[in-house]
Design brief:
By secondary structure, this protein is of the alpha+beta class. It has one domain. 48% of the residues lie in helices and 18% in strands. The chain contains six helices and six strands. The strands form two sheets. Strands 2-3-4-5 form a four-stranded antiparallel β-sheet. β2 and β3 form a beta hairpin. α1 crosses α4 and α1 packs antiparallel against α5. It is globular, with a radius of gyration of 17 Å.
Length: 173
Amino acid sequence: MARRVVTINRAPVLTLWAAVVAARIGFDWDAALTLGKGVAGLNAQSKGRRLGIYKPAAASAEKPPRPKRGDELRVEVCGRAVPAVSTKDGIRAVVGDKPVEPESVAAYLEGKFGDDLDAVKEAMQELARSMKPGELAERAYGLYEAFRPSIPAGKKGWGAAGELDLNRIKSLA
């Protein structure tokens, strides 16, 4: 089998993988896209704080009231509790105080992966289908760690591209 490699940074890889996982555990594709974006965003915030790129928000004596949203919930995907809301169109991850639009996530993924998007998505779906949904839910982040692109450690790796090996993804199935 010829080696198929895509050079890309980790954020879109995690976004797509988390969306594939969310779809496999039962969410429709639009909801899954937004949850994937939520997982990647939470990961970036956490890593950015650890590296000193993002500073934690200053604690104030009085916390401002949170905006009221309908049917607020948390959805666990890839080990992350993603803030979400039930909208007329279905479940959507929330960033800040706004539901994520699935179309914007789809456009983001198309822009980052280009012509490789379908092949990468297919490899990830093959891996996701190789397990029962409950098993996948438990192992999803560990699987991502096993196939994600290698990048330099620390701040040098922030936003850096690495090689995503599609054969590696398929071999984990």
